[in-house]
Amino acid sequence: MINYGLKILLLGLLLGAAVPASAGGSLLPVIPEAQARVSETQGCVEPVDDMRKNHMEYILHQRDKTVHEGIRTQQHSLVECINCHVSDAPDAPRVSSEEHFCNSCHTYAAVKVDCFQCHADRPVSTAQKLSQPGGGESLLLSADRQPVSVTGDQAQ
Amino acid sequence: MSEQEGIDIYRRRFLGNAAKASAGLALAPGIMLTELGHAKPADEAVTGQVRWGMLIDSNKCAEGCNDCVQACNDEHGLTGFDRPATDAQWIRKVKLKDRQTGHTQTLPLLCQHCEHPPCVDVCPTGASFKREDGIVLVDKHICIGCRYCMMACPYKARSFIHETLQDQMPYAPRGKGTVESCTFCVHRVDDDRTPACVEACTAENHNALVFGDMHDPSSQISQELERHSSQQIRADLQLNTGVRYRGI
Ligand code: SF4
Ligand code: SF4
């Protein structure tokens, strides 16, 4: 009898341990919410499915255009990805954490992300707060930069 | 902040930008912004119609003042590791002394944005390049850190990053194993703003630095270059530098 009871107890412990493991430490990534949607009907700057698969192509293409030709549209800009997808709260997770937007998926997919060896993993507003306690604007592009609309024709 | 408020703020920013951009396009009847300055739409590539340059008046450059250097460091998040021999320096103050007369003067030295840049000539990967508008940059995605360009540059304008970096500025990506130098604050220039060093010098009322388009005869830099004599450092190398000096 005692033996049987012990077995039940052990089984219970095992199950008890297994349940949080599959809920909290879920295999699926927990992706932080973005700061905003592009429009009512569209979440990201391209359809979300497309972004999940092809975001690296978009930012790779944009990177060459920005560095070599000075094209600084917002739609596929890495800086704008971070501005929207990473919170500027002081305790917002850094890219080393699995709670950082980029790293949440990259950890899940086991793909190393090396952008942030050079690029900032935090939004412009964070860098600005940290570097310009007086609230200067040297980091921000001025407001009259021409935005690229991602609504209308390009939205799907 | 509710989710809806967040979205509204984001939209307002988008729309605000759009409104200002379209207001800018028609400043006055018949006058387009593109004719006045260099406000280039964000989706247009830079062209060779512009050549960015800087005129540095050594007579106005105040001894002991380091504002341009500080502004550059702040702007690009350049931090030191207490290793002066290798810490990044995009702009530095140089003191000149005439041994005959004892007269001293100072000037800032930075990448001269050469028209015929030796750094680009020697770069084996194509990482060092000159933009159409004359700004010489390193594409750090391509740079392998061989440092040939550092050896080739007659002005010692380039730095190599030896340390793993953190907390880079969003508009100044920098990382270990690559070479870097003054970008003329390209992220500002593309946004029709002045480099941080020039802004700092002007704010202190020293006005030793003038930045502008050397191809535009009506720009302040072109007019000053036409009116007064100026020098290139090591003009004998015939690199046709984008940075010119007065009073040296
Ligand atoms: S000053 Fe040096 S780094 Fe700058 S363009 Fe000339 S050779 Fe290249
Ligand atoms: S260090 Fe980088 S930019 Fe300089 S020559 Fe080598 S590859 Fe080119």
Secondary structure topology:
The complex is a heterodimer of chains A (156) and B (248).
Chain A: H1 2-23, H2 48-69, H3 78-85, H4 101-109, H5 124-131
Chain B: H1 3-25, E1 26-28, E2 31-32, H2 33-36, E3 52-57, H3 67-76, E4 91-97, E5 104-110, H4 118-122, E6 128-130, E7 136-138, H5 148-152, E8 159-160, E9 179-180, H6 186-189, H7 196-203, E10 209-213, H8 220-227, E11 243-246
Parallel strand pairs in B: 3-11
Antiparallel strand pairs in B: 1-2, 3-10, 4-5, 6-7, 8-9
Helix pairs in contact in B: 3-7
Bound molecules: iron/sulfur cluster (2 copies).
The CATH class designation of the largest domain in chain B is Alpha Beta
> For the terminal residues of chain B, how far apart are their CA atoms?
58 Å
Largest interface: A-B, 39 and 53 residues
The tally of structural domains of chain B comes to 2
Portion in beta strands of chain B = 15-25%
What is the C-alpha radius of gyration of chain B, as a whole number of Å? 20 Å
SSE series of chain B: HEEHEHEEHEEHEEHHEHE
Radius of gyration of chain A: 21 Å
Number of strands of chain A: 0
Going across the biggest sheet of chain B, name each strand in turn.
Answer: 10-3-11
Topology as H/E string of chain A?
A: HHHHH
Runs of chain B with pLDDT <50, length 5+? 6-36
- What kind of assembly state do the chains in view correspond to? heterodimer
Fraction of helical residues of chain A: 40-55%
Task: Sum up the overall morphology of chain B in one term.
Answer: globular
Helical amount among residues of chain B, as a percent range?
25-40%
